[in-house]
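Researcher: Structure prediction, please.
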Amino acid sequence: MINTISENKSIALSYIRICAVSLIVLCHFCQAYDNRWAYILNVGVQVFIALSGFIYGHKIIDNWMIWYKKRFLKLYIPVFIFLTLSLPLYYIFHRDVFNVLGFLCNYCNLQGFPFVFGGIELIPGTRHLWFLTAIALCYLSTPLIQELKEKGTLLFPILCILLLISYKFLPGTYAFIVSWVLLYSMGYMYACSSEKYSIIYLLAIAVTFITILMFVRWDNLLAYFDKYGRLFHDLLGCLILFGGFKFLCLYKNIRMNSFLSLIDKYSYHIYIIHYFFLIGPFSLAHITHNNYINILIAIVTIIAFTALLVYLSNSFVRTFINK
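Model: Predicted structure follows.
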């Protein structure tokens, strides 16, 4: 794999990744305390999806078998460990929400598809894992996207139009699935666009985003399954990624301390763990009568179990994959 991202740009993308995971964690803290503005912060997911495409838009993958092996091992090993450890906890302490089919959907990475939402009750505390379905579909589309790499400047506005059309004409959950791949593709093609056109496209996204703010009610934008709300988040995610990247790249000697580097490196593990302790039967959000103490307990617990997940994942790779 050929990497064309400079060190300065790589650090800029790390800051955006930290911003994305921070928004997601903050979103679920707000959701745990029934704050109606929580969903606005969920834009971190859209940033993650577009960021993944943007990163691979700066790379040329020459061996797809090796690339897929690395991607899917990195994607699935931590979540398989998380599911395997949490399964007996649900069975012993919260059998009322224990659901074999729900766990099987998570193990098979089907939890993001609409027929699952329609027919199988997903396990509370694991419903955020729909992101794995989304990113896996994006990875599967990458070979085709790379074939069109040279036409990135032309394809980016076409992808934006397709995103608008999908929300207009497709049923809700199916539009969401299409939007994952389109958002990933937009990030990829934006990375391939010339500097001149990338600025024009950023301004066009900003104008569309402002138009939605002017004409769509906040009740729609704050509704999780509302099409306008999803489109609002897709565009906001693009603005954070593309605008943030251009802004950070203005600093020629950008640096990152060791604490932020850890958040960046283990952002995926943080994503897997945090929801379990904030939403669902094992939530720590109301463990005492003092919410400030609850928040502190939750943060410490999330950090501790993230460290445990990282350790177990690395041990599994060393023992069974790299032996």
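Model: Residues 102 and 119 are 10 Å apart (CA to CA).
Researcher: Thanks, that helps.
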